[in-house]
Amino acid sequence: MNALMLATLWWGCASEAPPGEALEVSEIQVRVFLEGAPRSGGGKLVVQTEYDARGEVRVPELQAEGLEFELDGPPTAETIGDRDVVTQRYVYRGSDGHYEIPPLTASWTSPDGTVVEGSSTPVFLDVAVEPLRVGELSDIVEPNALWTIPWVPVLSVGAIFVAGLAMAFWPRREEEATPERRLPPHMAALKAWEAIRFDGALTDEDKARELSVIFRTYLEGALRFEASAWTTTEILAHLRSLVQLPEGNVPRAKRLLRATDRIKFAEERPSGELIEELDADLRAFVDATRPTSWQASEEESQAVAPAPARSASGWALTVLMVSLGAAVGMAAIEVAAMALGIADGVLHWAARLSLVALAAAAASILRVRR
Fold first, then answer.
1. Do 362 and 313 sit in the same domain of this protein?
2. Is the distance from CB of 219 to CB of 235 less than 8 angstroms?
3. Are 307 and 370 in contact (CB under 8 A)?
4. CB 217 within 8 A of CB 228
5. With 206 labelled, which of 32, 52, 101, 287 sits at a CA distance of 20 to 30 A?
6. What's the pLDDT tens digit per position in 109-147?
C-alpha cells in the first residue's frame, strides 16, 4: 500500500510543469458582454480590454447593423501586475428584434513595433423578442394529438345562432323615420358664429379660432372646395381664380384668414374692435356669396332620411344568416382539423375567422333590432 501511494505521488510531481514556466497569455485580450438584460429599445454592454502595459493598444468603435452605440461615461482603468485593464461601458439602442454584434478586434503594439491583435467573441441580442430556436431536439418524438371537441366555440356559435334567429323574427314595433332638415351654408355659418360670438365663457382668442373654422366650413358648403384641408395661401389663390366671385370678397377673406392665423400661430391677442371687424367681413362675404334661394335637392333629402325599417331589417337578417353560417363552418373546420391531426396553425386561423364571423353576427343582431 505504501509503495502504491509513493508511486502515485511521484507520477503527479513528474506531470507538473517545470518550475518558473507560466501558462502563455496573449499580449491583448478583448471581452464584450451585456450589462443587465436587454429591454425594449436597447440596453447596456461593456467592452473590457486587458493588455501588456509595456505596449500601446488601439480599440475600434463598436459597430453592429441596426444598433447605435453611445459612450456611457468615461472609461475606467486599473493595473493588475504588469497588465492594464480598461473598461468602457456603452448604451446601445435599436428597434425590437434579433441582432449580432460581430467580434471586436483590437491591436497591441510592442515597443519594438510588433503588432498583436485580439478579438472578442460575437454577442447575440434579442431585444424585446423571444430568442431564436437553433436546431431541433434529437430523439424527441411528438406525441399524437389528443382529439377533443372544442365545446366552447361550438356552443358559442350555437347560442348566438339561436339568439339571432329569436331576435330577428321576434315581433318589433315599427318606428317612423323623421327626416332631418339641413340648414343652408350661409344660415348655418351665421347661426354658429352668433352662438360663439355671444358666449361669455369664451375669450376673444377662442372666438377668433372658432371663426376660422366656421368660415372654412362655409367655403366648403357654399363654394364647394375643401377649405378645411387647405392653407390660407391656397384658399386665397382659389378665390382669386373664381371669375364670378363678387368684387371685394377676396380682400375680406384675406383679412379674416390672416388675422385668425396670427391669433392661432403667432399667439397675437385680439381686441374687441378686431372681433367686430372680422364679424363685418364674415357677414359681408356670406351675404355676397350665398345663393338667392335655397332648396334641398331630392338627393340630399334622401341622404339625410333613414332607410325604411323593413329594408334595413331584411339586409341585416341576410348578413346575420351569412355570418352565422360562416361561424358554423369555421367551427366545423376546427373539429375536422383536430380529428385529422392538422397543424395548430390551421386551428388558429379557423378560430380567428370564427371570432370575426361571431362579431359580424352580433352586429347584425343589433342592426335587426334597431
1. yes
2. yes
3. no
4. yes
5. 287
6. 999 989 999 999 999 888 888 887 665 555 556 666 565
